[in-house]
Design goal:
The protein has ten helices and eight strands. The longest helix is centred in the N-terminal third of the chain and has 25 residues. The protein is α+β, with helices and mostly antiparallel strands. The strands form three sheets. The protein has a three-stranded antiparallel sheet. It folds into three domains: 78 residues, Arc Repressor Mutant, subunit A (Orthogonal Bundle); 68 residues, Nucleotidyltransferase, domain 5 (2-Layer Sandwich), CATH 3.30.420.610; 29 residues, no CATH class. The protein starts with a strand and ends in a 12-residue tail after the last helix. The protein is globular, with a radius of gyration of 27 Å. 38% of the residues lie in helices and 16% in strands.
Length: 238
Amino acid sequence: MKSFFFSTLILPSPFLSPNPFLHLQCRRIAKVRLKWVKNRSLDHIIDTETDLKAASLLKDAINRSSTGFITAKSIADWPKLLGLTIPVLRFIRRYPTLFHEFPHSRYANLPCFRLTDTALLLDQQESSIHQIHESDTVERLCRVLMMMKTRAIPLQSLRPLEWDLGLPCGFERSLIPKYPDHFRLVKASNGDWCLRLMEWREEFAVSALQRSNESSQLGDAYRQFKRGRTTLAFPMSF
């Protein structure tokens, strides 16, 4: 499908008025094909990260379940939520070390899944790591709220980011009540629950880039940055 756009060129032309230096010209947009280049190392990292995230979210879902297991029917429409491109049932069967499959007590043809002893041990270790690094989690959550104009964010918007932010499962019950000086659960005008920052945290309003430059040997360059006379170098490595 062809499309057009108009561009203004500065060209002298005696036939245009009132400004003889404006000329309206019609051009076509060229269709460009880019060759798809594969990066095996990056693809491997993405695949591993995707599987780890999906397995962790399924583990948390089983932990939250009142029955202690989930059924294949209940997770059938979760591929997008888990970031998968294959059916969830096929994915969960890849990892029998983590998820034990058994038939439903009433419906023999309905597969069910509970956590194995190995998965329960990993879950305990994960909980221990969350406790050890709880202060980092609180800081990270404060930073997210400080980026919001209202200093608040709906819980329904925050829950899908649990994995990416490193929040423990059920953080609104296990973490938030422990820090009343930092956070508060409030109800919005539409009835949704929101997490609100209690007060601005000046100690968190510093980027990691600033911290690294402040502690580096480039003291003069950082002082110039603080005075607004220069910018900080932002090294990138893929």
